[in-house]
Amino acid sequence: MLAKFPKSKTSENIEFEQDQILTEAYCDPANTPVTTDKGANMVAATAQKIRIDCGCHRINTAIKTGWERAMMENEELDQLHDDVNKAVTFAKKSSGILSELPISLKKGGKIRPWRSLYSMFNSILQSYGKLLNILTEKNKAYIVAE
Predict the structure, then answer these.
(1) Local confidence pLDDT in tens for the 146 residues of the chain
(2) Distances from the Cα of 54 to the Cαs of 22, 38, 58, 124, in angstroms?
(3) pTM summary value
(4) Phi, psi for 50 (deg, rounded to 5)
């Protein structure tokens, strides 16, 4: 399998690479099911083949859509996300804070909520007491105590 896609990701290039890989594995490209996301280039590349939607991509889309809707409808949740992100950023930019915490603080994002936001909130939760003490000593407790 290729480590990096060698060309632009047009449907033609994707189809060519898929066919090559399947042929090298002694599989018939026309009769071997391929699991992909629903990107237009992937759908076009497999239009004449057996394509199966990737369940993980579908679940991610559902969770991302639900999270975005929840953040749009709940200002406090959106503010919590921003505040936690600011706390993590501050801790990572300040020398000595991360080394004193029980676990490393994770930066979260809105792109893959099932992964990054859980990690971010969980890291803050597990380190909250120690982080609050450190920030209080630096007169910055407001970052996590608002």
Answers:
(1) 445 777 888 999 999 999 999 999 999 999 999 998 888 999 999 999 999 998 888 887 888 888 888 888 888 887 887 888 888 888 888 888 888 999 888 876 656 665 677 788 888 889 989 988 988 888 888 887 65
(2) 18, 8, 6, 32
(3) 0.54
(4) -95, 110
The CA-atom distances, in angstroms, between 78 and each of 29, 69, 81, 124, 134 are: 46, 10, 5, 16, 25
Q: Which amino acid is at 54?
A: C
Do residues 45 and 15 make contact, with C-beta atoms less than 8 angstroms apart?
A: yes
Retrieve residue 116's tokens. 């990054």
Q: How far apart are CA 85 and CA 36, in angstroms?
A: 32
